[in-house]
Amino acid sequence: MPRKTVLVTGASRGIGKAIAVKFAKKGYNVAISCVRNEDRLLQTKKEIESFQVPCMAYKGDMGDMASCQELFDRIRTQFGGVDVLVNNAGISYIGLLQDMTNEDWERMLHVNLTSVFNCCKLAIPYMVRQQQGKIVNISSVWGVTGASCETAYSATKGGINALTKALAKELAPSGIQVNAIACGAIDTEMNQWMEEDELIALVEEIPAGRLGRAEEVADLVYHLSYKASYLTGQVIGLDGGWI
C-alpha cells in the first residue's frame, strides 16, 4: 500500500511541529512549511526523518498563492499529492481594534485565513481524483465565542470555522472530510507573553486545571485524518471544558 502524504503548514514549532512529528511516527510522507523560522523548520525536518520517512521542508508564505503553488508543485513531483492537509499557520494580535493598523488587519487575514483558502484550493483536485482526503483546520475557541482585544484574530478563526462547515458540504460527495479543531489555551510559545499571575488566573478558569499540550492537538488531528469518515463539517472544541 503506498505511503500517504500529509502537509502541515506553520510547522516549525508548537502545534504544527507536534502534528508533523505525529504523522511521521505513523509512517506518512511529511511536507512542512513556515514563513520565517527556517532554522527551526530544518530542525523539525531532521526530527521527522529520524522516523525513517521522507520529509519536504518549504520556507514560504502560504497566504501568497504563488508560493503555495510552488510548494504544491514540489509535493506533486516528489509524493504525487496531498492526502491529508492540516492548515495550522497562524499569528495572533493582542490589542484594541481602534489601535490596530490597516496593515496589521490585512496581515492577520492573509496569514490566518487566506492561507487556508490557498491550500484547500490546491489540495482539492488531487483529493477529488482519489475520491478521498482529509482537511483539518486548526482554529480557536475565540472563533466560536470571540475574545476582547483579539477581535481580528477572532474574526479570522470564525472565518475558518465557517469555511470548514461550507467546504465540508461541498466535498462530502467526493469522499473528502473537512473538520476544524477549536483549540483552547495550549501551552505553546504563542502564550508566552503572559505574566505568571495572568497564567495562573487563566488556568483557574479551565475546568481541567491546566493548559492543553501540543501533542494532544496532534493526537486529535491524526484521529480525524485516520478514521471518522462520517464525521465532517464539525468544529470540535479542545479546551479542557473551558468554553
How would you describe what is shown here?
- By secondary structure, the protein is an alpha/beta fold.
- The chain has 8 helices and 7 strands, in the order βαβαβαβαβααβααβ.
- Strands 3-2-1-4-5-6-7 form a 7-stranded parallel sheet, sandwiched between helices.
- Helix 2 links the parallel strand 2 and strand 3.
- The N and C termini lie far apart (42 Å).
What is this entry, summarized?
This protein is α/β, with parallel strands linked by helices and 243 residues long. It contains eight helices and seven strands, in the order E-H-E-H-E-H-E-H-E-H-H-E-H-H-E. A seven-stranded parallel β-sheet has the order 3-2-1-4-5-6-7, sandwiched between helices.
> Which of globular, elongated, flat, extended, rod-shaped describes the shape?
globular
Number of helices: 8
CATH superfamily: NAD(P)-binding Rossmann-like Domain
Radius of gyration, taken over Cα atoms and rounded to an integer in Å: 17 Å
Which stretches of 5+ consecutive residues score pLDDT under 50? none
Largest sheet: number of strands, sense, barrel closure:
7 strands, parallel
CATH architecture: 3-Layer(aba) Sandwich
Strand content: 15-25%
Number of domains: 1
As laid out across the biggest beta sheet, the strand order is 3-2-1-4-5-6-7
Structural class estimated from helices and strands: alpha/beta
Work out the number of β strands.
7
User: Helix and strand succession?
Assistant: EHEHEHEHEHHEHHE
Mean pLDDT: 96
- What fraction, in percent, of the residue positions are helical? 40-55%
Write down the oligomeric state.
single chain
CATH class division:
Alpha Beta
Termini separation (Å)? 42 Å
Question: Do you know the CATH topology?
Answer: Rossmann fold
